Amino acid sequence: MRTETPPTVRLEDYRPSDHLIDRVELDVRLDPHDTRVSATLALRPNPAGRAHAPLVLDGDDLTLLGLELDGQALAPDTFRADASSLTLHAVPQRPFTLRIETRLDPTANTRLMGLYRSNGVYCTQCEADGFRRITYFLDRPDVLSVYTTRIEAERAAAPVLLGNGNPVEAGAVAGTDRHYAVWHDPLPKPAYLFALVGGRLDRVAKGFTTMEGRAVEIAIYVEPGKGDRAAYALDAVERSMAWDERAFGRAYDLDVFNVVAVSDFNMGAMENKGLNIFNDKFVLASPDTATDTDYAAIEAIIAHEYFHNWSGNRVTCRDWFQLCLKEGLTVFRDQEFSSDMRSRAVHRIAEVRNLRARQFPEDAGPLAHPVRPKQYAEINNFYTATVYEKGAEIVRMLRTLIGETAFRAGMDRYFADNDGTAATVEDFLEAFEAVTGRDLARFAEWYERPGTPRVAVFGSYDAAAKTYRLAFRQTRPGAGADAPPLVIPIRLGLVGTDGPLIDAASGRVEDGVFVLDAAEDTLIFENVAAEPVPSLFRGFSAPVRVESTLDAAARLTLLRHDPDSFNRWEAAQRIALGLMTAQARGDAPEEAGADDFVGALGAFLDGEALRDPAFAAQILALPSEGDVADEIGTEIDPDAIASARRDLRRRLGAGLRARLLTLREELAEPAGTPFSPDASAAGRRALRNAALDLIAAADAEAGTALAQAQIAAATNMTDRLAGLAALALLPGEAREAALAAFAERYAGEPLVLDKWFAIQAMIPEDGTVARIRRLQDHPAFAMTNPNRVRSLVGSFSLANPTQFNRADGAGYALVAETVLALDGTNPQVAARLMTAFGPWRRLEPGRRAQAESALRRIVATQGLSRDVADIGTRSLAG
Ligand SMILES: [Zn+2]
User: How far is the CA of 253 from the centre of ligand 1 (A)?
Assistant: First the structure.
């Protein structure tokens, strides 16, 4: 365990590397405890760096066995090697070769960074700085090299040997039980994109011919016996390749594209060049083990990692401050892909739910940071919703501002100008400036400051003049008076109260978009015959909080008549949010308002539920407790919020009961219908299960019977799990029996048991902390596996607000203990778990004190990792 007070790394301190590495030849001899790595590096001075600088290579936990410069062993006094660096005091001012031999123990590597073993499979994770755990190197993204990798292993233990790039040769090692494979990656890449795999794996494959005529073999490798569960992922790779050609003109550039699924993985997946390594949760799917949500996530993450081949790999990041350059852009690309594969409106709603659930609270708490951070102590803690999701929203706003045609031209320009290089946010924006002639300097502000901007909008109608005025005012949290206003694209329209749209125009609205680039501005619409309702930020055209004076009646008009689906959903959400926040704050309950809402949802279901079930399911799904907390903002009492939400669900369930029961009948698949994971079948299941949830909220007895029947009849995991989730909220024998039966049925299925852990972790009852402590001793639970930890403790901390935030502090204590227990073996996952404490300052005083003391307990612990110390310090600061 290392204890460090890490130096802060600052963007303003960036300078180019003093040396470059043109070529890397690696010879990796795999062994469970004694892996030998020989790295031959072709180095030269960087003309952009300092002359005569010492060569300082990064290392982490390495044992140096040998060191040669141009074939000569180096004298001990010419270099200094320790676990974290290798310094050569003087190196030639010309190209030279360095050969470094190191020894590693992959089995002991529980941090899952560098080379490690997952269920006996050798695999790697090098982003952000794992390559330095394999050999000493210039481990920074702006040093790009061409790699040739020879991998050797015992044939029986690792019949499959995979590397980056294309396979070159393979064979037996004479006189041994070992074999080898050589891989060559012709395209220069930074070390974080390096990967290798060795193990016993099954393979499924199919061919693809690119638009450039290249024949590519796509293959997915999974645990033996699970090949049939890789079919959906394989299909998703093929669709991703075809889509990136169509949508962005980007073709794949190697002869093979390999995806490997491993069970122990810190993140979702990794885009290593030509050899993506995935958390098996995002590859394996069958109707009996995966929900519709899992299928959608597999499709999205397969696409995301594939799209990185251009946005991230061909054009990479100059430094880690530019992380959004590859992540925000690639999230935008995968969102567009999923929107094309599924319903665009429903997908946009899912994106915004996710942004509000994860990024808005982050941006309002102590861990807030700009999309392009200015400094960090531990980069692994910056793989955040802000960098990814808000980063994607910035790209989306850029497209809204300049239009689709110019956006595509700018993307082409960006790829052309920066191919094979390490770029910055400035390089990205420059490409769009070049094709549009626009100055994007002010737009670039979006990258620079934390906090969610607010836009207040006031509408007023002049009946005599038949004009409608919309006044806008933008503010930014924490921004000084001198801070320039942001450039905010607002997609908007006016909706008439009787249904038809008002054909009104303002000269400053172009293609439905008004650009607010001043602190305050006013729009005037002419020839407006009757007072309209403004439909603002259609499609969520900017990641801001909107303050408007619309009342419930106006929002009901939008729910009924807005041609923008997103804003119809938003109208229903805002009404529900208003009802729940009023009750949770103890304001006078709006009985009439709730009845109107129930009535409007009933009318909506009658007219449209069957036309677009996926959208209807979104309309029925109330804002989460987290959304209500975020809306309330301070002095949060999670119990009051939960109670308000429970009451509204009960009211909807009771008021809509007959309709919901009928809908469930109408949406049921006829017996024998083959399972399809497509968006339309998934949409019908989603609405049917949303109906179950509301019926059960109002009537425990009916809910229990329906849920039990659904579980008994289920032919797929979506329906089975929805039945179990409904039962989980209804205390009693039926629940415990269903949980036990589920565990028995899926005893050999770790990914399915994750769902079982999660459902129990989210039960909003007093006994849940004790239940989780029992489950931590369950044979299927393992602290060494990040998926298990996230399912049990992560679900609890992020999705069980009343129990995590228990007034007696028992929830915080449980999570704090888990963070500390995990920190010694996997600090990255421990730190991620700890971010659940982020909103602690917004709680009511009693819980705030409990959360603070749990945080202080963690921070006061001796020997903390840099990852956890960084989150702890920042959470308590300010
Ligand atoms: Zn990514």
Answer: 19
State the distance from the centre of ligand 1 to the C-alpha of 472, rounded, in angstroms. 35
Beta bridge partners, 279, equal 262
How remote is the CA of residue 527 from the centroid of ligand 1, in Å?
48
Beta strands in 164-311 (DSSP E): 166-172, 178-189, 196-199, 202-209, 215-222, 256-262, 269-270, 275-279
DSSP for 822-836, written as a single string: HHTT-HHHHHHHHGG
Query: pTM to 2 decimals?
Result: 0.98
Q: How far is the CA of 636 from the centre of ligand 1 (A)?
A: 34
Round to whole Å and give the CA distance between 564 and 569: 9
Predicted local confidence at residue 480, as pLDDT: 75
Whether 305 is a known active-site residue: answer yes
Identify the pLDDT of residue 335: 98
Say what the pLDDT of residue 406 is.
Answer: 98
Please answer whether residues 254 and 208 qualify as being in contact, where contact means their C-beta atoms are separated by less than 8 angstroms: no
Antiparallel, parallel or unpaired: β 375-376 and 9-10: antiparallel
Residue 6 confidence (pLDDT)? 67
Q: Which residues of 570-607 are buried (b: 16+ CB within 10 A; e: fewer)?
A: bbbbbbbbbbbbbbbeeeeebeebbebbbebbbebbee
Note the pLDDT of residue 1: 40
Residues of the chain under the 70 pLDDT cut: 1-6, 499-500, 589-590, 878
Burial of 166 (0-12, 13-18, 19+ CB in 10 A): middle
Structure tokens at 88: 């050569």
Among the listed residues 305, 351, 430, 625, the single catalytic one is 305
CA dist 47 to 13, 87, 319, Å?
19, 20, 18
Terminal Cα-to-Cα distance of the chain (whole angstroms): 29
Closest CA to 434 of 453, 457, 462, 411: 411
pLDDT digits (tens, 9 = 90+) for 836-847: 999 999 999 999
